[in-house]
Amino acid sequence: MKKVVSLLLVLLLSVSLIGCGNKNKSADAEATPKVGVTIYKYDDNFMSFVRRAISKNAEDKAELIFNNSQNDQAKQNEQVEMMISKGVKALAINLVDPQAAATIISKAKEADMPVVFFNKEPSVEDMASYADCWYVGTNSAESGVIQGELIFDSWKAHPEWDKNGDGKIQYVLLKGEPGHPDAEARTKYSMETVVDKGIQVEELELQTGMWDSVKAKELMDAWLAKHGDSIEYVVANNDAMALGAISSLQAEGYFSGDKFMPVVGVDAIPDALTKIEDGILVGSVLNDAANQGKATLELVLNVAKGEAVLEGTEWKLDENKAVRVPYVPITLDNIQIAKDCYSE
């Protein structure tokens, strides 16, 4: 009889331990939920820093499934379906094409899946179509205004840049992806701000470099061959294109001796900060990758755990369910602000 009782006790203890083990495993899974993330393309300079910030902030908090959409919206749509099938608790989506947001939202709705878009903003209508979607990014117009102020201030400080003495800035502009909210706003507001502040401008060239250094260099090569010294300012929607333009200009002897061409960008990525320190790049506009990645992770982690989207964060939502990370003008005078964003 004693043997039977002992055997029963052993069995009960075993069941209890198994139950505790499963419970702990379940609690661990809840503490580190599986989150699906897409990046429109990995070789975008700025997005590489956002991706790093998302990963850094997810340590010991979430299991991330990262996807490189390779600038292919059809591929991204398939990746979203794959992540949903793998049982992710929430999605963080850097759209290839902002106009495809409705397709992603439809897939998320069907799976009852919360989604946080970042960097490329869906339309107001798309955002309003689903209660469980949010956006992390910036105020696109702000970057254009700040860049315009940088152009104005630098031009006023260097009257020698007006090569033909006509009081106007003859400029070329490297535009990002057509239709991208940042590209459209930066293109519009940068030069409008210069004019509003009292300097006349003349556009010599405006073409898309698709955010890409190589494409920007090719365009700058062609523009220098066509316009030569008639170009007085190079305006780029992002630093990658600004760096491509600088490469082209250096090949033509600029930034050596007294031969100089003012160039401004947006993002304030590390390579651009080096050019500012070297006296080559006039300035940039800090597009805070560290905080955009941090905000994206914090929001998507909250909704993955079934908590309120802003629970325990410092962020605020605007009327379009968006967190707006502010831009900061960066010149040599305050370059440390941007450097601090990239420190580990």
From TrEMBL:
Keywords: Calcium, Metal-binding, Periplasm, Signal, Sugar transport, Transport. One of its GO terms (molecular function) is metal ion binding. The keyword Signal applies. SUPFAM superfamilies: Periplasmic binding protein-like I. Residues 1-19 form the signal peptide. One of its GO terms (cellular component) is outer membrane-bounded periplasmic space. It is found in: Cell envelope. Pfam families: Peripla_BP_4. Residues 35-307 form the Periplasmic binding protein domain. The ABC transporter complex is composed of one ATP-binding protein (MglA), two transmembrane proteins (MglC) and a solute-binding protein (MglB). This is D-galactose/methyl-galactoside binding periplasmic protein MglB. It comes from Oceanirhabdus seepicola. The lineage of its organism: Bacteria, Bacillati, Bacillota, Clostridia, Eubacteriales. The gene is mglB.
